[in-house]
Amino acid sequence: MPKILFLGDINGRPGRDFVIERLPTLRAELGATIVVANAENAAGGAGITQRIAEALLDAGVDAITLGDHVWDQKNFESEIDNLDAVCRPANLPACNPGRSSLIVERDGFKLGLFTVLGRNYLKMKSDECPFKCADRLYTELKQAGCDAVFAEAHMEATSEKVALGWHLDGRAVAVIGTHTHVPTADGRVLPGGTAYQSDAGMCGPYQSVLGREVEPVIQSFLDGMKRRFPMAAEDVRLAGCLIDVDAASGLAKHFERIELAKPAS
Fold first, then answer.
1. Nearest to 77, CA basis, from 34, 48, 101
2. Residue 179 catalytic?
3. Domain extent listing, the chain
4. What's the confidence (pLDDT) of residue 125?
5. Confidence (pTM)
């Protein structure tokens, strides 16, 4: 039975170093067929570079997804087309560089995957309705011969994520949420066979405010003034989920939340 390991937002050097260190053995321990990771915050907590993407791929990530911070790092728009295993959000304007979906094949199992941005509370505006975009890409990827299709909901509003999960239930193998960095307790397999979780959490420092040092963020809430939010470094964890797939139907048989803490040095 194929297994998909999905890793939530990789956040800064602490998150990416732990993923690179732990993933090779974790993949074997879990028996993961394909590893997918959101890495849109892998470079200093905002964006990604080609060098970082290649390091994650070399460590065993099969496919990298991105979100609303896709263009935060200078020149990444000129690098993304060099990365065959990286996709940007699918519902950005078609003129944006990068791939809108990916197909990964391992051990005879062919997985199609994509990310859609939400339309509520995100500063980056999407060009296409995420629900209609998901419908279109699901059809295209199935027509391309994919055994299963994985959808990432990169959204701020939980209601929008939940609605997308129900919208794709019985079609997508999984609809997993990212962006808010806090793992949610609602992971399950929906009645139609689609694995769902509102947010997979982050791979990064949890003694933080969403990966940033605590005090500057608190002070900003207190006085409303802008200031730098340095990356935090303590209580580093790897968070995500493992999905068992029925290869015949392309739907989920089992969902399991994954969370590992980096041992104290």
1. 48
2. no
3. 3-261
4. 77
5. 0.96
